Amino acid sequence: MTLIKGAVLYGEGDPVDILVEDGQVAEIGELKKKTGQDVIDAQGLVVLPGFVDLHTHLREPGREDTETVETGSAAAALGGYTAVFAMANTDPVADNPVVVEHVWRRGREVGLVDVHPIGAVTVGLKGERLAELGAMARSNASVRIFSDDGMCVADPLIMRRALEYSRGLDVLIAQHAEEPRLTVGAQAHEGETAARLGLAGWPAAAEESIVARDCLLAGHVGARLHVCHVSTAGTADVLRWAKARGTQVSAEVTPHHLLLDDDRLNTYDPVNKVNPPLRTSSDTKSLREALAEGVIDCVATDHAPHAPQDKDCEWSAARPGMLGLQTALSVVIETMVKPGLLDWRGVARVMSERPAEIAGLPDHGRPIAVGEPANLVLVDPKATWTVNGARLASLAGNTPYEGMELPGVIKATLLRGKVTARDGRAVR
Ligand SMILES: NC(=O)N[C@@H](CC(=O)O)C(=O)O
Ligand SMILES: [Zn+2]
Ligand SMILES: [Zn+2]
Fold first, then answer.
1. Which residues line ligand 1 (CB under 6 A)?
2. Which of 16, 364, 369, 382 ranks highest by number of CB atoms within 10 Å?
3. Could you tell me the residue range of the domain that residue 383 belongs to?
4. Which atom of ligand 1 is nearest the CA belonging to 306?
5. Alpha-carbon gap, residue 297 to 289, rounded angstroms
């Protein structure tokens, strides 16, 4: 039993107390402490539904030197997450029931966050043959999202077949939209900065053309489609158009594409190397607006831990990817709440409710109300913190926000009533 004293629901109205019992919200109102109740002093804190991340890389199996289900789960709990979806680009690839069941089982053993493995769309992420989507969907891991993330399902016929199967299985295909013929050797957003720095360009059209193609394919076969890490203003335009004509498409944006732009590349520090690449400041502005408007449905971290030897090297040899789980909320506050584009209700929508709906999770992203599962996060909206990669829970330290002072401190996370993070520590 836990009594949360004096929290403000969705940052609206007067503070209330929340009694959590048997994994659920048992009472809301002005409550007295009873014996045996753990009390969380939540004065001045905002309470939101626990966050859901549709796009996390946990690196297990294969690169346990950079992240494991255990360390990634701790980072997730500390970031306010109660459910994460783990991408399939592990080694071996999660393209079969054995690997997805391993990730799922480790998530349950660790117990800090609900870990849902994503299955690969094609065998070995090679884009040639469909993986056994049905076997993964029916496995104990009940896979509900499939993605070749890291790679694009580039062959339009394979993509069409994947969408057709996904409809029959009632699962979701999430596409990493990158036309590979347009990004051979690409190192940075194709534009002024890349030209000046002498880096091979990754044109916006390589993303936009695949998103347009896939929206047309999804519409044609009557399937749902999810677009990973939208990074350009043009992609937002394509999504706006597709949604207006009734295509069942959803999309995510990462915190780093909301905040950072390719100006950061001047130092050639590979901590800023990510796929899709950081775009222009005008793209970040359009992405913020598209998220506020609902054209982009949600925020997903694309948390991508990498070892020092894969990051602290020359630009072209470095792997793309950035940590994201523990900084996501703060970046959303900085880019969306502070400028007035989203209120706390809106934060709950883009970080919890919409991703839970997109993934079909029945017990996450729920209203904070009596009888609902107690998946909650308590946020101090006034406090700030300074990011230090070495102190984050991830095994890797590749955060682009090193040394930055960011708004919003997560005081506690509860998963089905159990405190999983409190005052900056994961609680197992
Ligand atoms: N985002 C990245 O830059 N890297 C991801 C792959 C991906 O999300 O495409 C990774 O696995 O490291
Ligand atoms: Zn990707
Ligand atoms: Zn990714």
1. 57, 89, 149-150, 176, 274-275, 302, 304, 319-321
2. 364
3. 2-46+372-426
4. 12
5. 11
Q: Is 423 a catalytic residue?
A: no
Say which of 41, 302, 312, 423 is annotated catalytic: 302
What residues contact 262, with CB distance under 8 A and at least 6 apart?
Answer: 188, 189, 191, 193, 194, 277, 278, 279, 280
Closest-lying ligand 1 atom to the alpha carbon of residue 151: 9
Q: Return the best residue to mutate from 63, 66, 67, 89 for the ligand 1 pocket (most ligand atoms within 8 A of CB).
A: 89
Determine which residue's CA is closest to atom 2 belonging to ligand 1. Answer: 321
CA 110 to CA 71: how far, in whole Å? Answer: 9
CATH number of the domain enclosing 203: 3.20.20.140
What is the length of the chain? 428
Q: Consult the annotation and say whether 102 binds a ligand.
A: no
Please state the ipTM of this predicted complex. 0.99
What Å distances lie between residue 327 and 324, 331, 348, 353, CA to CA? 6, 6, 16, 19
Domain count, the chain: 2
Tens of pLDDT, residue by residue over 59-81, are 999 999 999 999 999 999 999 99
Helix (H) or strand (E) holding 117: strand 114-117
The pTM is what?
A: 0.99
CA neighbor of 275 nearest in space, from 243, 306, 244:
306
pLDDT digits (tens, 9 = 90+) for 255-275: 999 999 999 999 999 999 999
